[in-house]
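Project outcomes to date are best conveyed with an example. Our students and postdoctoral researchers have been running inverse folding experiments weekly, and each run begins with a structure described purely in tokens. The record below, which covers 286 residues, was selected by the lab manager from last quarter's runs and is presented without edits.
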């Protein structure tokens, strides 16, 4: 490794060429200090990581009202069953079996609330890419408790069309789930802004003819206009009045980090369709 006069190591780019008409052959080398270039690249990576984390927190913030409603249900049930236990135990001859049943309900509701909080914490963490083997359908269904309260609160339908027997993929669950939340949230806001009655969001999976695992988020909103469709993944490009324009740009960056693709197509017959394609895990030789 090259060193400066003070002994510090620095990165270089080396170009080597052959000196013409020399016998024996001679070579000339040019060393270029790329310290500044390397520092700029590292700064860009750190900035992208911060933007990704900010985008993840923004997505969670947008669905917070629906999550609060969803959490209130198990918490209210816990309070109700706790009061019932107090009342039953206050009787002269309490029915122990009935008390035990109420306690089981409390435990079940507490697990439900904890599961919702666990998923939110997983999505909010600022970890670097940590891929693991996953069934993409389970990655999607884990989000149901986070998405349905929001869509129900806005009177919008939400359903899954998941193809069975898909091959496993290598993904960072939290990051791919952030992408899906971004896409679903965008679809919800598009339907609302378009004032579409009976709007619906569908998340589907399938295996493409090329063997890739595909996730499609479709909506029945007004769709993406032609003049913005070419720029929709550009940073700060937004169709929402108060949008930052970072959600789709961050989502594409995350998908590309997984060596996948994210693209937009018009939905048939109306609306928008965003498609994520991921490569399945290669089968290991026996």
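After processing, the design step wrote out the following sequence:
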């Amino acid at each position: 490794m090259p060193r400066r006069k003070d002994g510090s190591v620095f990165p270089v780019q080396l170009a080597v060429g052959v000196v013409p008409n020399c016998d024996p052959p001679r070579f000339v080398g040019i060393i270029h200090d790329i310290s500044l270039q390397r520092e700029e690249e590292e700064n860009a990576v750190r900035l992208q990581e911060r933007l990704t984390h900010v985008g993840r927190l923004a997505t969670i913030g947008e669905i917070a009202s629906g999550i609060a409603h969803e959490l209130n249900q198990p918490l209210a049930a816990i309070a109700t069953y706790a009061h019932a236990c107090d009342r039953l135990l206050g009787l002269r001859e309490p029915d122990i079996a009935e008390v035990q049943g109420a306690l089981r309900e409390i435990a079940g509701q507490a697990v439900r609330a904890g599961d919702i909080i666990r998923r939110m914490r997983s999505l909010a963490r600022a970890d670097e890419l940590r891929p693991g083997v996953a069934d993409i359908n389970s990655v999607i269904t884990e989000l149901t408790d986070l998405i349905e309260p929001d869509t129900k609160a806005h009177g919008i339908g939400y359903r899954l069309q998941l193809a069975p027997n898909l091959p496993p993929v290598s993904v960072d669950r939290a990051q791919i789930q952030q992408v899906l939340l971004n896409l679903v949230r965008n679809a919800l806001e598009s339907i609302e802004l378009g004032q579409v009655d009976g709007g619906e969001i569908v998340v589907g999976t399938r295996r493409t003819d090329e063997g890739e695992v595909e996730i499609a988020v479709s909506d029945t909103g007004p769709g993406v206009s032609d003049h913005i469709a070419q720029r929709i993944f550009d940073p700060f490009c937004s169709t929402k009045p108060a949008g930052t324009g970072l959600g789709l740009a961050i989502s594409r960056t995350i998908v590309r980090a997984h060596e996948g693709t994210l693209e937009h197509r018009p939905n048939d017959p109306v609306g928008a369709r965003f498609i994520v394609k991921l490569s399945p895990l290669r089968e290991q030789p026996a």
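The domain at 131-278 is CATH 3.30.565.10 (Heat Shock Protein 90). The chain is about 45% helix and 20% strand. The training component of this project remains on track.
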